Amino acid sequence: MPKVGMPAIRKPQLIDATMEAINEVGLQKASVAMISRYAGVSPAIINHYFGGKNSLLEATMRSVLQQLSEGVRQRLDETDTDDVIARVKAIVGGNFDQRQLDSKVVKTWLAFWSQAMHEPSLYRLQRVNEQRLLTHLKVELKRVLPNEQAVFVAQSIAALIDGIWLRGALAPSGIDGDLAQRIITDYLERQLPADILKKYS
Amino acid sequence: MPKVGMPAIRKPQLIDATMEAINEVGLQKASVAMISRYAGVSPAIINHYFGGKNSLLEATMRSVLQQLSEGVRQRLDETDTDDVIARVKAIVGGNFDQRQLDSKVVKTWLAFWSQAMHEPSLYRLQRVNEQRLLTHLKVELKRVLPNEQAVFVAQSIAALIDGIWLRGALAPSGIDGDLAQRIITDYLERQLPADILKKYS
Amino acid sequence: MPKVGMPAIRKPQLIDATMEAINEVGLQKASVAMISRYAGVSPAIINHYFGGKNSLLEATMRSVLQQLSEGVRQRLDETDTDDVIARVKAIVGGNFDQRQLDSKVVKTWLAFWSQAMHEPSLYRLQRVNEQRLLTHLKVELKRVLPNEQAVFVAQSIAALIDGIWLRGALAPSGIDGDLAQRIITDYLERQLPADILKKYS
Amino acid sequence: MPKVGMPAIRKPQLIDATMEAINEVGLQKASVAMISRYAGVSPAIINHYFGGKNSLLEATMRSVLQQLSEGVRQRLDETDTDDVIARVKAIVGGNFDQRQLDSKVVKTWLAFWSQAMHEPSLYRLQRVNEQRLLTHLKVELKRVLPNEQAVFVAQSIAALIDGIWLRGALAPSGIDGDLAQRIITDYLERQLPADILKKYS
DNA sequence: GATGAATGAGCCTTCATTCAT
DNA sequence: AATGAATGAAGGCTCATTCAT
């Protein structure tokens, strides 16, 4: 009499426990034993559901990325298709969503970022994510800027997002989402031609 | 009389081997055995000279930070004290120095960045470094911008530096130092008042 | 459902293996690897059940002390409450019980005796044991001797017990329990007043 | 230009350092490095002068035994050849000499006692010492007691000496030499025939 | 004589994983 | 489905010893 639907319960539970463990002691010391303890289950469960620690870590990262991706998509959906400034703000806002600023998530992010350089499976996930951010920005900017400048500005904004996030991750005061918006909006406004600016303000 | 002066030879040798190991397999898997193999010495030597793996890692990070710090200082020394734009460029240049872009160094950086969140000793080193970059920038910018804006722009440029560096670290093509200079110079020029700009171009 | 109740099997098994190892090569060289080999299990099992080598050693000592304590208590229980000479003999007998004279146990005892001076946890156990012997003797002797002499005689008998035991531990012929009884009984008879003696013989 | 007479300086210095190390952390943790640190010399010195750690330990034990042996011999030399009670007291006194009660010496003794069971070279030294004490006592006692009783009493006194010493070694208050003399003298007086007793008191 | 350098062996412990139940 | 039992591999570290100087 196997209970049905257990995977749908156990998997998120274990992914959450993984992030908690990483938050507490770092990826390096987040052992299977500790993760399972956080989840309140036996260590063997992890192999049962994920087939190994590596798969669990990959699933955890995938979960974080998905959350980010959805945060951005949602905000874009709620934005006027033509209001470029608002759309960029939506993208920035999605990247500084409250859930993304949780210590647990931030540390998990950073851990995977470092880890990704040595694990092809994580690397691919990371790359897709990086490119998606850039693509989103380029799509919007190309509608109001010459092609070349659009790419240039997109790269800058992507760098600002990651840079502010990274520096905030290390700061004792945490990541300041509002400051991020102010910095990036200011930057964007200085790049847009006067007529576009006037149109949306 | 015994051989003397070995520490001066062994310590840098071991630090270099540490970076090589991190470059190859990541901090997590960079074991004492592997590091000593890269250095061509016995594993016990690490404890002999550093007293433990942790101290070696700390020394390695310290070494990377020092190299960065010196790169910036050198470039600043070669720059006209009054030319703010040139001085900011020097700071940026120091952060994108050829030695800092070496794969070995980049991966070591990132590994420590992630690790720093869970090891107070590394955390402190990292914080000092972060603050130093910000301070350097603020000192220069305050001479040409109102106080509040100077802080704002300094934070932005610091974020751009770290963001471009971080995104480049993950990109297969590596970090593009020239692009960094162009993006940041462009940003700075859009922030400076017209009269200042004219003066230095 | 997993196998259960293993601790009750494994713990005594590991404690016994520890004594065997100490018997064979001494406490100093009794490594976790060797102990687990004697027990026919993997070295990791020791940490699984005891959480470390030190705890296993402490548990081993505790086991020996308990065995001794029970041996004395049993013999006292089987003795007439009023027959002081018989009760002292019971105490001596318990200390020279066959199980306490086994080479394995003797060497373990001696090893811990030496070790106790530098490990507080072992020291406490040892002290309790020492004091218990003395107390047992004093309780009995005070019923037939003036207070001061009772203490004096109790100390002497305790010393005789430990001294005979210690010297026997080192002798190739082992510990001679009968001789111990004769020596101590003779000593006691020479200390007791004539009327008491007559009463119990 | 080798300095001459160095062995005569270094060897006692190292033996003393060994006892200090044993006193501080126990035989088990008294490493060559620590001993040499106590002696203020390089670890290699030990191999130079003793050819290995084991030899140093053996020499240390030999030194302790010699000191004991001399203490007894000296006191016997100062005693009337015919006064049996005084001679036994001399033997006891030698075993509870002030130098033998030093914490450093006591812990060294006990450490070796335990160690002796597993190292033939130490075992032999220990045995010789044990037998010498017994022989000394028997020689004296046979002059005033029937052969069989003399052996019996000698064994008892030897056991008292070792027992009091052992129990005192573990007690926080240390070894009480005076109590030892009182206990043993009392015991002896109760064993001696009345005429002998009268003769020497 | 004396020492710093260097090492190989071994130790305790941790850990991801497998398995019988 | 779930788990306690068990393990082999590996990790960091300590240590006695050797050697060139």
Report on the architecture of this protein.
Four copies of one chain form a homotetramer. With 201 residues, the first copy, chain A, is mainly alpha-helical. Helices cover 78% and strands 0% of the residues of chain A. Chain A contains eleven helices and no strands. Chain A has a domain at 61-200: Tetracycline Repressor, domain 2 (Orthogonal Bundle). The termini of chain A are far apart. The longest helix of chain A has 25 residues, at 53-77. The first copy, chain A, has helices at residues 6-25, 32-39, 44-50, 53-77, 84-95, 98-101, 103-116, 120-141, 147-170, 177-191, 194-199. The A-B interface holds A 25-29, 107, 110-111, 113-119, 123, 126-127, 130, 152, 155-156, 158-164, 166-167, 169-171, 179, 182-183, 186-187, 190-191 and B 25-29, 107, 110-111, 113-118, 123, 126-127, 130, 152, 155-156, 158-164, 166-167, 169-171, 179, 182-183, 186-187, 190-191. Chain B binds a DNA duplex (21 and 21 nucleotides) through residues 1-4, 6, 10, 31-33, 41-48, 52-53.
